[in-house]
Each structure stands twice: as C-alpha cells, then as structure tokens.
Amino acid sequence: MKRSEINKAIKAMEALIKEHHFELPPFFGWTPEEWKNKDHEYDEIRDNMLGWDITDYGEGHFDTLGFSLVTIRNGNQHKKDQYPKVYAEKLLMVNEGQYAPMHFHWTKMEDIINRGGGNVLIRVYMADRNDEGKYSDEDVTVHTDGHKYTVPAGTQVRLRPGESITIYPYMYHDFSVEPGTGAVLIGEVSMCNDDNTDNRFYEKLGRFPTIEEDEAPYRLLCNEYPKAK
C-alpha cells in the first residue's frame, strides 16, 4: 500500500469513530514525532501492538481485501506476568466492497459487534477437525445477543447496528458489508489477541502491508513504533 492510502484510511476511520461518538485513548492521536520521545512507560502499547492497524493482507488490494482497525487494549499470553489482562478490545472499519477473509482462531473467543453504520454479513463454518484446512459440512450453532440457534454451514449471519455474534475457536468466519448499507464500525471484545500465532486463514495470506512511502506518515501503525530510549 502507499503511505497516502494508509493515511487516508486512518483519517476516514477517525471520522467514522467521531460520527458514532466513540472516544479513543490519547495515544491514538500521537504523531510520529511525539512517538520518538516516548520511553519505557509506554511499553505496553509497543509490546501488545495497541494502536492503528491498516491491513491489505499483503495483497495490495485494500479497496476489496482488507480493512482498518484499532486495538484499544490487549493482554499478552507470552508475557503474562508483565501483562496479565485476559481480554482485548478492538474497533474495525469496513467499507462496502471490502472483505475480511475466512479464518478461525485456535484459542481466542470473541464477540463481533455492529457499533453503527451499515449491516455486517458474517459467513460461518466449523473447521473440519480431521483436516482444519477444510470446512466441515456440519450445522453451525450460532449465539447472537442471547439467542442460540442453528444454521447450515456457510450461512451468512446479518448483524444490524447494535447486534453481535459470538465466534468460538475453530469457527471459520469472514465478514463484509451488505451492499447499499454503507460503511460500518465494528467492535470486537475478546480474549487476548495474538495475530502472530492464533490466526488460521483458509487461504494463505500475509498480515501487514508492504508500504510505499509516497508521503509522510500521519500516524504510526502498531508495528512501526520506535524503540524506547
């Protein structure tokens, strides 16, 4: 991705968050210059990859594959003594036409919540326990806001603003926006998040974009922070 695309995506998400009256912690507004002066007092942000995260999964097609997100809080399963939180919270912005690809988590359970805007479509399958690279054809038990029911494998569950779905380990899921409903702000409340070890994508994909520096960064991404002095 071009840095200008990343800057544009961050500014668009800032506007959507403001539209839906959500307030982010102060560090989301720090400039690259301000980050140069942040010492070890802020290692929790660095070590747990809090902050801005714009991904195209390394494929270079952000308008169709990828989305914008912020990690607000997170624990660390590899440094439990230092960071004992057992939970995480994120916000995501998905535009019409964008797609978050099919994947599951080996460990993490999460609630995906429509915080406002358009309708979210989430397709669900269970992984085949004999070959996790395949979908099972078994029905999927779905939990949405206190409602437990069963749907055929591959069903798209629609989440309107305010609605949520619980995603369990080994439950394949993707998400996109229902056409004609507009950009959506998605909340995620979950167990600790570890994108390096707990994501199993149906198709092999990268995680972070390769960046072409065509302009100065507006905000640093969560994998770009300078080391503490």
UniProtKB/TrEMBL annotation:
Organism: Qiania dongpingensis
Name this polypeptide is given: D-lyxose ketol-isomerase
Enzyme class: isomerase
Classification via InterPro entries: D-lyxose_isomer (IPR010864), EcSI_cupin (IPR047581), RmlC-like_jellyroll (IPR014710)
Signal peptide positions on this chain: none
Protein EC: 5.3.1.15
Keyword Manganese listed: yes
UniProt keyword terms in alphabetical order: Carbohydrate metabolism, Isomerase, Manganese, Metal-binding
Family the entry assigns: Belongs to the D-lyxose ketol-isomerase family.
UniProt GO MF annotations: D-lyxose ketol-isomerase activity; metal ion binding
Superkingdom classification of source: Bacteria
Catalytic activity: D-lyxose = D-xylulose
Cofactor(s) required, per the database record: Mn(2+)
Pfam families: Lyx_isomer (PF07385)
The keyword Manganese is assigned to this record: yes
